[in-house]
């Protein structure tokens, strides 16, 4: 493999036409861009992606783009085209004819009137890989509903197992602190696109991919769903405790909380020895994980009483020496300044086209031969319109000026 290909990324040479906005779609296209694909993000003139306004905080660089937008739009070129105008839709179709992948998250059937649906684009580009992301999928009784992360977290059952139990202070269903339903659907979309690319490489065939937020989040119920499907156990909220593994939760020390995550019987016995509670390790009720889970109502209070006398740093240090999994609950500034994160190079400094600095969280996979690259900071809306239309479609300056004057396209907001 040449050094050129290595530096460009494993998806170098592929073009993604990104018609999506907000998070699930842009999250997927950003990953494809990190891995080397050329991503062209199509935005609405005068408005752009909704997340550009989802603040504060905002960048103070004239664009007033929100920090939210910055987290999911690097390694993309932004072009502003009004697809509601026939000339605008025609320009997008010409770009789609040159693309390997088209990604969109409009409502079901929403792109048919613009000739930008899968059937229309397949007619001009038979090997295109076309991925649609919606709340509930392209069929079924909910297909015409709008889908938002918070709604999906509740409908999927996720919130029924997240938060403190009913009857406890703060009890009740709780959403996850990040838009997990959007993010996991973006991941599934990327995985599906890569699978479709491999199929196309083998057969020459493109295909249609239908990804739904609800489907993705239900798939992410993993052990909780399996507990019900295969054991008849209806999962409930347990706070920070685990439904299957005990002890696997937070404990209060004299000066703060620690996380204790013991995954097997050996680790449990070693932890009991560490805190001076061999009596717990020797109790036949707690000898196996199944017994500890059944009798957690007795075991956990006994552990809480002993752990409460420890200083958190002392307990974490002792667990590290004993090679037992434990740690603290970090706040966001703490983890982003953590030496492990610094060593792994996860935070990257980038510059927008005008020199404005932007920090981003990088792609977490470490590819030894074709690593992710950080080539272009999240762009202003439409800043690449003229360049892309000139290079990709051969439009000259006069034609670009005419289209701008007619409101068909726009440059930077």
TrEMBL record:
The keyword Transferase is assigned to this record: yes
InterPro entries for this protein: CoA-transferase_III_domain, CoA-Trfase_fam_III, CoA-Trfase_III_dom3_sf, CoA-Trfase_III_dom_1_sf
GO molecular function, one term: CoA-transferase activity
Top-level taxonomic group: Bacteria
Pfam families: CoA_transf_3 (PF02515)
Keywords linked to the UniProt accession: Transferase
Keyword Transit peptide set for record: no
PANTHER family: SUCCINATE--HYDROXYMETHYLGLUTARATE COA-TRANSFERASE
Protein name per UniProt: Putative CoA-transferase
Organism: Caenibius tardaugens NBRC 16725
């Amino acid at each position: 493999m040449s050094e050129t290909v290595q530096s460009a990324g494993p998806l170098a040479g592929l073009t993604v036409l990104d018609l999506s906005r907000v998070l699930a779609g842009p999250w997927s296209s950003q990953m494809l861009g990190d891995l080397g694909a050329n991503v062209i993000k199509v935005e609405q003139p005068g408005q752009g992606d909704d997340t550009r306004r989802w603040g504060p905080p905002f960048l103070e660089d004239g664009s007033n783009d929100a920090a939210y937008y910055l987290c999911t739009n690097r390694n993309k070129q932004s072009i502003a085209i009004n697809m509601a105008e026939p000339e605008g839709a025609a320009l997008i179709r010409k770009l789609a004819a040159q693309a390997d992948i088209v990604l969109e998250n409009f409502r079901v059937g929403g792109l048919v009137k613009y000739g930008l649906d899968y059937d229309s684009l397949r007619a001009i580009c038979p090997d295109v890989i076309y991925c649609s992301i919606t709340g509930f999928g392209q069929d079924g009784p909910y297909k015409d509903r709008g889908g938002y992360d918070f709604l999906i977290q509740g409908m999927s059952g996720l919130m029924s197992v997240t938060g403190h139990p009913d009857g406890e202070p703060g009890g009740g269903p709780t959403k996850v602190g990040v838009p997990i339903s959007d993010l996991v659907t973006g991941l599934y979309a990327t995985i599906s696109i890569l699978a479709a690319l491999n199929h196309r490489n083998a057969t020459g065939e493109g295909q249609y991919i239908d990804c739904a937020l609800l489907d993705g989040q239900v798939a992410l119920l993993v052990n909780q769903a399996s507990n019900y499907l295969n054991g008849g156990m209806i999962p409930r909220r347990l706070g920070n405790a685990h439904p299957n593994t005990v002890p696997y939760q937070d404990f209060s020390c004299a000066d703060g909380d620690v996380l204790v995550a013991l995954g097997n019987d050996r680790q449990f016995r070693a932890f009991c020895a560490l805190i001076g509670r061999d009596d717990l390790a020797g109790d036949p009720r707690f000898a196996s994980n199944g017994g500890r889970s059944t009798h957690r109502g007795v075991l956990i209070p006994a552990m809480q009483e002993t752990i409460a006398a420890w200083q958190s740093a002392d307990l974490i240090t002792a667990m590290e020496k004993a090679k037992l999994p434990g740690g603290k609950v970090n706040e966001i500034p703490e983890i982003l300044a953590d030496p492990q994160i610094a060593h792994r190079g996860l935070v990257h400094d980038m510059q927008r086209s005008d020199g404005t600095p932007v920090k981003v969280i990088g792609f977490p996979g470490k590819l030894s031969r074709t690593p992710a690259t950080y080539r272009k900071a999240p762009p202003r809306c439409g800043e690449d319109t003229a360049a892309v239309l000139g290079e990709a479609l051969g439009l000259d300056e006069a034609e670009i000026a005419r289209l701008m004057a007619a409101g068909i396209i726009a440059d930077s907001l």
